[in-house]
Design goal:
By secondary structure, the chain is mostly helical. The chain folds into two domains: 67 residues, Arc Repressor Mutant, subunit A (Orthogonal Bundle), CATH 1.10.10.10; 140 residues, GntR ligand-binding domain-like (Four Helix Bundle (Hemerythrin (Met), subunit A)). The chain starts with 18 loop residues before the first helix and ends with a helix. 30% of the residues are buried.
């Protein structure tokens, strides 16, 4: 065994490099955005050689990124073929959104009790960003602000199991929520929902906040059904 470096204890644990993990996360972010914008469609294969060459990375961090996306339910893998972009049915999406609606309603209720003044200011600031960028042609940027708004409310619940479970479900519904949020039809109603969420939180009105958040997600099911039907 080689001697320890200067200042390192012989029994100190070996700390692994984080560079590869960060690169895998970056690759996963790129692929998620390609799924949002339609560059990668449901059912499309993700060929390792072509994708790694296009991104200028080796296959190792790409495979790690694919594992991240598989855990989120965004891609499906099998030993005999390249990974493919997940193509959940309307029934699958409806069931997932029903759970997410319950999670966000609970988060809104808890946030009314647990959110700090700083939390409320941050949530209002995100809402104001949404209003300002409502007609912005960069729909991906607007959507990410929207998701940050919802995540901030969930975080303000101060309930760690809820926060973790919400993140897991929200990751699986990333593309579906983008599809719903991108529709111009019903956008005014959606923005009014966001206003009422902020108002309910600031009033510490748990019933109003929870009801609005649940209704907001139920509207997403209708939007997605119309999109897939078209």
């Amino acid at each position: 065994m080689p001697p320890p470096e200067d200042g390192q204890s012989p029994t100190a644990p070996v700390i692994p490099s984080l560079a590869r993990t960060r690169l895998a996360d970056q690759i996963a972010d790129v692929l998620r955005e390609q799924m949002l914008t339609g560059t990668l469609q449901p059912g499309d294969p993700i060929h390792e050689r072509d994708t790694s060459a296009a991104l200028g990375v080796s296959r190792t961090p790409l495979r790690e990124a694919l594992l991240i996306l598989e855990a989120e339910g965004l891609i499906e893998t099998s030993p005999a073929r390249s990974p493919i972009v997940a193509a959940p049915s309307l029934e699958d999406l409806s069931q997932l959104l029903a759970v997410l609606a319950t999670l966000e309603a609970l988060a809104g209720e808890l946030a009314c009790a647990n959110a700090t003044p700083k939390d409320l200011r941050a949530i209002r600031a995100l809402y104001e960003d949404l209003v300002e960028t409502d007609s912005d042609p960069d729909t991906v940027s607007h959507f990410k602000t929207d998701m940050a708004f919802h995540s901030a409310i969930v975080a303000a619940s101060r309930n760690q199991p809820l926060i973790k479970t919400h993140q897991q479900y929200n990751s699986r519904l990333w593309r579906a929520r983008y599809m719903s949020a991108s529709r111009r039809v019903g956008r005014a109603t959606s923005m009014e929902d966001h206003r009422m969420m902020v108002e309910g939180l600031e009033e510490r009105n748990s019933e109003k906040t929870a009801k609005t958040m649940r209704n907001h997600l139920e509207s997403a099911v209708k939007n997605i059904a119309q999109i897939l039907g078209a």
